[in-house]
Amino acid sequence: MSLYVKKGIKFFSIKFARVHTKKSIMNKINAAITAVGGYVPEYRLTNKILETMIDTTDEWIKTRTGVEERRILKGEGLGTSDLGVGAVNDLLKKRGISPDEIDCLICATVTPDMSFPATANIICDKVGIKNAFGFDVGAACSGFLFALTTGSSLIESGRYKKVIVVGADKMSSIVDYSDRTTCVIFGDGAGAVLLEATNEEVGVLDSLLRSDGSGRPHLHMKAGGSVKPSSVETVLAKEHYIYQEGQVVFKFAVKGMADISYDLMQKNNLTADDIAWLVPHQANLRIIDATANRMNLPKEKVMINIQKYGNTTAGTIPLCLWDWEKKLKKGDNIILAAFGGGFTWGATLVKWAYDTK
Ligand code: UT7
To answer: Is pLDDT of 190 > 60?
Structure first.
């Protein structure tokens, strides 16, 4: 408290300093990942099969991308929501909770079931999540990280207790299987995490996220949006498929993903020894290697499953967590990193919240 005089009148002022007492740290709400679910369709599109469809070789695909096979969702009337449903049901079963307990479901995707309603709503309906609100996040390959930060903020605000974040894409619905430069990379799949409130110093602790719309000429879908609605002409011109200038995107991706992961380590005073795992977006093994090198991380600390699933866009990062869940230990520092269309990119620091029995 201090005394000061203004225009002859005496004032008392009390300054409340932002002191982080032990009590305030204990009351801080963090968003812990408390369960992981995943789903990939049965059908395996191998490099050998692709050799019969386009002018390519297993050798070229493996050495240039790291992909050996990818899963494809087959079946009339099935879409991205069906992949998401598989992941969410897996997660609810593992955690042993009912759909009624979920407050919000966010779905990151670039292949929504339809323009509207949101795929998140459709997943909620199919799973039986009735007491929640849901919405989609469109940030291409960085979608899961953007959705994870959004979901965490909802938890940290104290207003929501259980939020599901899904990353799901049926990339086969927008891949031109006569374009050998793109069709070898992508696959279908979904992963999901449950976020719950905790007062422990675990969970989604920090993020650096970026987007730069000037990158859109290099990776986009030409038609089907409001600028160029679908027409006979757009279909004939194959404008509803992924358009990617591979080499340009590659250069931006290598720098973008590596730099932001390094920056997040610096910001949090972490060295390579402090990091248990890097969970990189699975776009190309060479981009993953460059990111790990920049962070000074050995290969043993990098989650890589690109050989099994290819690039499932928003699905890659949660699918890695799903595959590695049993190896993760409470207290592990994990850096999730992505780069994708938009351009969008980012890195997120997670302190793992549980041991899997
Ligand atoms: O996840 C979202 C963000 N996306 C990315 O991060 C993807 C980034 N880009 C990439 O991963 C790579 O650029 C690709 C995998 C897409 C392509 O690899 P690349 O090493 O950049 O190949 P390239 O496009 O420079 O093509 C090199 C050669 C070309 O032949 P010429 O012109 O040198 O005779 C291509 O025609 O390889 C040829 N090629 C192929 N050959 C056999 C391209 N695709 C194939 C193929 N099989 N599937």
So the answer is: yes
